[in-house]
Amino acid sequence: MRLKPRAKTAGNFINTYSHWVMLLAYLMLFFAFILLPIILAAALSFTNFNSVEIGGFQGLQNYIRAFTQDTVFMQKILPNTILYALIVGPGGYLLSFVVAWILSQLTKTARTILAVILYIPSLISGVAVSTIWAATFAGDRTGYLNNILIQMGIINEPVAWLQSSDYLMPIMIFVALWSSMGIGFLSMLSGILNVDREQYEAGIIDGISNRVQEVIYITIPNTKSQMLFGAVMAVVNTFNTTGLGVALSGSNPTPQYAGSLIVNHIDDIGFIRYEMGYAAALSVLLLVIVWIFNKLAYKLFGASD
User: Fold this and answer.
1) Quick check: is 14 in a domain?
2) Which of 175, 171, 151, 176 lies closest to 161, judged by CA?
3) Which of 24, 153, 179, 271 has a CB 3.0–4.6 Å from the CB of 125, allowing a cystine?
4) Predicted TM-score of the model (pTM)
5) DSSP state, 19?
């Protein structure tokens, strides 16, 4: 007798597609908060949406405007962003790795205490900017830096550090590096601590004679995944810096656009001037730039085929 195939039950269906069931919540959140906003931004970038009226389709006009008509974007915003990214991104990344390696040489108690101390600035950076650094670089005699320099006789009159186009960007870079010991730093510290100590002993037998060679030939190859994570986080955090220059200077755009980055320009265009179509085009350009730098990070630290 030929048996009839057993009908599929709900339990069999769940067992067959259990991996998709487990991923369903994540996929829904990913679509709602990441994929859908990207799709909408890309769609709006081809319109002249002004927050009230969708307006008409205008093709690539917003992108053409960014590179040919928006002189502030080409002369101020884009150079500021590139300069900031080239210093804060690699600088903060290298600083995180060096500090993580130094801490790995200490005892457990000292390492834990110092790691917490170094990690705290990345958690309170927003509060610290508006309380500590804004007061430190205040442009009157009550500013800590001005007060110290006047008492030392280095300057006679207070300097408006945060309103000057000569000083705002260097101060932003300094504050960003101060708070760069974030989750990427902890990831690299964890990776270094988990390197098998026997590899260092084998390296000595093979001819490694100093700590620099240990880092190049043993530490870095064994922590590539953590270094990749740190690089990606450094890229994202660098290009996603939103309120640093605005919080320090107290205005958006910053004085003479000296500390304005792409994200600040997007806020200015979209939420102050209500040119949402053009702001969407700038956000798409920012997404492409971040994607390119992430691809470079994967080329450097990604797993080889």
Assistant:
1) no
2) 171
3) 179
4) 0.81
5) H
Q: Cα separations (Å) of 76 from 95, 165, 201, 268? A: 27, 11, 52, 14
CATH of residue 99: 1.10.3720.10
The DSSP element (H or E) to which 12 belongs, if any, is helix 10-16
Name the β-bridge partners of 92: none
31 in a structural domain:
no
Tens digit of pLDDT for each residue in 117-160? 888 888 776 667 767 888 899 888 888 999 999 999 888 888 99
- Separation CA 208–CA 203 (nearest Å): 5
Which residue has 């405007």 as its token pair? 65
The amino acid that residue 10 corresponds to is A
The token pair at 83 is: 């300069």
Over residues 170-223, the pLDDT tens digits come to: 998 988 888 888 888 888 998 999 888 888 888 888 888 888 888 888 888 888
* Number of domains the chain contains: 1
